[in-house]
Amino acid sequence: xxKSGKKRRKKRIGYNHLGMFGISLIVLILMLSLMAQSRxxxxxxxxxxxxxxxxxxxxxxxxxxxxxxEALKEYxxxxxxxxxxxxxxxGLVKENEIIFQEEK
Length: 104
Prior knowledge:
The chain is an all-alpha fold. The chain is 84% helix and 0% strand.
């Protein structure tokens, strides 16, 4: 009975080692899979952050253009603009003003 008991213990110990090796292998595979997914997610996040920065830059540019247009609208309502346009387009002059023209 002494020998058969030792063989059974060795078999149990052998199965225990094999089971532990199998579990360790599965855990290792799962960890590698999670690391690959994590890397992919980080790359996606970097792409989204770059896209968000580009969009916010476009928004800032659009705001600047809008402010420029508003300033131009306000300028066009002033007497200074009216005078400038009349001089330029209609050729009007102020009193006592001399105009020199090129010969064509």
